[in-house]
Amino acid sequence: MIANIDTGRILAISDIHGCYETFMALIEQLRLQKNDNLFITGDIINRGKDTKKLIKTLIALRENGYHIFPICGNHEYYLISTLLSPDFDRTIQFEKTLNAWILKKDGTVKPKYRAFFTELPYFYSVENVYFVHGGFNFLLANPFEAVHSMLHYRGRYDENLLPPEMRIVHGHTPVSLEIIKQKVALNSKIINIDSGCVYKNIPELGNLVCLDVRAMELFVQKNVE
Q1: pTM
Q2: What letter does residue 43 receive in the DSSP assignment?
């Protein structure tokens, strides 16, 4: 999906995984403005302790005029698949996802959350940059239609397979902050910005990272949950 953006910064965050306090600390560090464009490359939900508050905040930011572009990750895809399944059973399937807050007392999904999750695209493109959760498999005939790869891709990239001038910013596979810094310093065409925010007990992880794509500037927030 092509994003229509304003003249502000193009920012990207990935794999927040319900770490609301860490996300808010990073937003404060960014001094996010209404003309900025914030892309969140999937896995917003689960694992962390406050997915509900995080989703409510993202919805509120958009309602208040901030340009927030959330993308479907594999965790959101599982949630959507559960919601739309004809065999949906809130007791067996849904409460295990820790997302029972999305339901009304009668077991139906609250409309604002259904809209939020079912409208998530698998990728956004802006200028020459493609934001996606897992990645694109350019060995396939139609990489921009291959949903499984966009959600789950962990393969190695041959940058020579990318179309000229194309840049990919993605998450899904946690990497150390040093690897991310190296990619940014080298102005790499493919940058993984998932530094495993939710894994705060692993020394090289536990960071929520934001990349300013135009400036190639990195903002880092340690997990404060």
Answers
A1: 0.91
A2: -
